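Budget justification note: compute hours in this period were largely spent on complex prediction jobs such as the one shown. Inputs:
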Amino acid sequence: MTAPASSTKVRGETILSVDNLVKHFPISQGVLFKRQIGAVKAVDGVSFELRRGETLGVVGESGCGKSTLARLLMRLETPTSGGATLEGKDLFKSSGGELRRLRRNMQMVMQDPYTSLNPRMTVGDIIGEPFEIHPDAAPKGSKRKRVQELLDVVGLNPEHINRYPHQFSGGQRQRIGIARALALRPEVIVCDEPVSALDVSIQAQVINLLEQLQDEFGLSYIFIAHDLSVVRHIADRVAVMYLGRIVEIGTEDEIYERATHPYTQALLSAVPVPDPEARTDRNIIRLTGDVPSPADPPSGCRFRTRCWKAQEICAVEDPQTVPRAADPHPSACHFAELRPTAAA
Amino acid sequence: MTDSIVQPTPASATPEGGHLLEVRDLHVEFRTGEGVAKVINGVSYHLDAGETLAVLGESGSGKSVTAQAIMGILDTPPAHIRSGQILYQGRDLLTQSEEQRRQVRGKEIAIIFQDALSALNPVFPVGWQIGETLRQREGMSRGDARRRAIELMDLVKIPAAARRIGDYPHQFSGGMRQRVMIAMALALNPKVLIADEPTTALDVTVQAQIMDLLADLRRDLGMAMILITHDLGVVAGVADRIAVMYAGRIVEHADVRSLYRAPAHPYTKGLLESIPRLDVRGQELSTIKGLPPNLMRIPSGCPFHPRCPYVQQVCVDAVPHDLVLGDGRTSACHFAQEVRDDSAR
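Corresponding output:
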């Protein structure tokens, strides 16, 4: 239908477009005659666009649906409804050869470098496995050489190609996971909490590697993390998720300096800043209570049960993620406004 | 010798003479099939009444093992305490009998762990678990223990405590489970609370709630606290003093403000420069090269030397002693003065 994307690669054009994506996991009851008694609304109407060469950070607390979103995009889960296109091709309608080609263009880096690598395969086999599924990606006989190149690219010793995962440290294993994701030269990489399991001194190494690879290969990242400081560092744009929805989305600056959604503001104010001098003059918003269950989200605005601005309308009308008067980036709050005193 | 100069903190006046809790030159090794891992190599620190000491370090630095040695809950074997003293109110816990240590554990020094879900027993209601200590140790009746458990749950701000006392751990959220853990630790009114990564498994908004709670409790109950963490942000918010650990040693020890303003050990300096900060835009992340050492083969001289930008021949040859800096801080670096001056710039 369309010409190969390689002929028209413009930085900044939309490469991945997600439209109203929904994933409900059924809750069933009964042993013999199972019937559905409800659903966990893990992802409940998420739309965004990813542009070529940019990093979209996705932040939120546990249970907000950010990892389910990643699994949906990788087609590890089938969405309940909604759609997504990668370079104009429908991600969920394609199958067979077309799906394989699509998948080649979008790869994933997992959170846990200890369980995401097969302990019985050598590093060479792990990184080379994608070439067995896509033989055309590496001409016959060049596989080993390609794997060694990849090891070199991610800063590992190419001579270690015959070692096993347990012979590497956590940070090195994450580099192996990154090399595997790079093997097929994808344009989009979904990183699901890629540095959360790593020690502080190793985190920075992996973050810098991801940034350097992005510049080198023109990659687009979806960078999922719960650490807002890390996301600020790496992301160009940021989406904030709460109970299966994106409640606010904007450029790094719009989210971190001019957030208009109360949840984003509370989230930002709760991040501990490594500066004892700053602790007194920071104005911290204390949220009470816990995140409600995604099986039974509150009516109207999902954040209203923890929100200090909640009014009657919040229980009745579900606020849309649209540009608000306070600041022109999309925010899902009826009372969207800037914080009077900038906290950070 | 390590520093015995105490930083006067606004929260506490240091009593003349001994400290409330003092670890002296502790050495612990783990004897495994593959060899001997030297996990703690001469750790010394102290804690005075009412203050908060943060012990900061990455995985494998020995911060939790030190705490477990204080509590007397190290698995021996494989762990083996080679030498050292742990003085609580002047008495060496390491020479005491198990029965004597049992009197200290929980009643004088209590601990909360990182993972509340695996630290709680899944088959008993939380109220029963909080009350267990009271029945066993104080000989309370079931009814009294139950009433006291409700009080404790109120104290840690678990809503509707009386109604939730019969609930099981899985019915609580992560933050609430951590509160249950704290309630259990407080049951016998300890004077020292060791919090081992209390918020690592929690979300950021819940983390803020728990850190607030710990700070309030510490102040209201007049406890001293040892906060074990890897998070430089959390430390900055609550601690009076910090001890930074690397490869089973304390490499730097200072009051919080001076340490953040001008770290005097290259490892601390590297850590502070390698964390992305929420309040800084377009930051350049510098990294600490290399990897933490294998504890079975700790590098010669200064254990940090293979990763250190300040490395000289002396660092390979000689183990640096704690250098006492002018303002009552110590740093185990041959070039501590230089590093601090660089950081202050």
